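Extended Data, panel c. Modelled sequence:
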Amino acid sequence: DSWTLVPDFGFTDDDPDRSSTLMLTRVLENQDFRRFDYYASRMIKVSLAVYTFPINIHASVYESLVLNRSSRPFLPKLRTCSISVDTDEEEIFPSFLLHLLSPTVSHIKLHVDLQYEKDITPLIPLILFSLPFFCPRLQFLSGCIFCSEKSQFGPFQSSFQAIVPFLDSLNALSFSRPTFDAKTICEVSRLPKLRKWEVELDDNVWSKEALKTTQGLFPALASLKLTAPTFERAAELINFVQVPLEDLELHINPRNSRLHSFTKLSQIFSNHSCTLTLTSLILDISMLKHRNQDVCAVFQPFFALRRLITFSVTSLCVTQLDDVWLADAAIAWPHLQNLILWAYRITSDNQPKATCQGLISLVRRCPNLSEISITITANPVATDVLDGACNTIIRRIHLGGSRPKKDDLEGVYRTFLAIFPNLETVDVWYSHKAWKRINDLLRLQSQSRVR
C-alpha cells in the first residue's frame, strides 16, 4: 500500500510497450524500512536500465531512501548492477546511486544517453570517480555512451583515463561506445588482472610514439574483441597487444577496402606472441573487396596459428579460397572444431572455388570437426580417397554457394553421406528445390537408421 505504478503520458494500461513511473502513495514509516531491509539483504542483482526494466522511479522514492539510509548501502549483498543514466531526476539520482554501490559489487553495466533533452554530462565524472572508491572489488565493467556529437565523449574519456589505474581488480572491460584513443588504451594496458577486453577504436591518427612500448603490458589478457575503422588501425593495436591471446574477434568494415590493406593485418600472425596460444579467431570483414587477386596467399599467414579450434571469416573473399587452401588449412589446424567461411551473397562473377573435395580434406585431417558453415560449389566427387575416414559428429551443415545441377543431385547426396554418415540436414541461405530434394533423401536415410 506504500507505492503504485502510474503509466507514463501517452501510454495506456493495456499497451504492451508502456513505461510506468514508480511513485509513493504515502510517507514511508519505520515498518516500511524494516521490510525494505529484509528484502534488500537478499538482493544480489538490480537493474536501473530502461532497456531491461521499463519503470521510471519518481524523485520522492530516491529522496526517501537517501534520507533514511544515509549511512550505509541500500543493498548490502549486491553483486551486479545495471545503471541507465538518462533520468531527469539529475539532482537526487547521484546520491541514490552512491548509496547503491558498495564493496560487494563486482559487475557494473553503464548506459549513458547524452542525447537526452537535459544536460546530464556532469553526472559522468561523478559516476566514474565513484566506482573505484565504492566498488574496490569491481571485476566486470561494460557500457555504452550515446551522443549526437563526438565532442560529448570528452568528459567520459578524461574521467575514465583518470580512474583506470585504480581498477586493479578488473577482469573484463567492454565499451561499445565511445571509441578509445591511444592514451586511454595505454592506461588500460597496465591493468594487472584484465583477461577480457572489448574495445572500439577511433579514427584519429595516432602518433608513432603513442603505442611504441609493448613489453610488460596486458599481463593477463587472454581475450580481445576489437572493432576498428580500418585494417591499418587494427594492425597497430594487434601489434601493440603482443601477449599470448587465446581468443581474438575482429570487426573491420571500412568502405571501399581492398585486399592489400588486409594483407598488412594478416601478415602479423606469422610472428606474433599469440601464434602458439590462439584457439579462436573470428573475422568480420564483410566489406573487403578483391579484384582477381590471390586471396589464398593473403590468408596463408593464418596457418601459423597451430592451435586453432575455431576459425570464422565473414567476407566475399572466402569464395576465392579453393580446395588446395582447405587442404593446407586441414594440415595446419588438426584441432579444428568450428570452421565458418561465409559469403553473405554470391554473384555470377564471384562463384565459390572450393568444392566437396575440400570437405574431404577437412574430414581426413580434423577428426574433432563439429561445425561447418562454408561457401562452396556443391558437386559430386570420388569419395574413395576418404580411405575409411569420415565425420560421424556432424548432423547439420550450413552451405552457401551454387546449387547442385539436376543431374548431380544423387551424386551430391551420396558424397555428403560418405563424408558425414550421420548428416540429417543441409541448411542453405536460399531455398531451392534441388536442396529440398537432397534434404528429403537425408531425412529418409536418418529415419532408416532409427529403425
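The longest strand covers residues 107-113. This feature is highlighted in the accompanying rendering.
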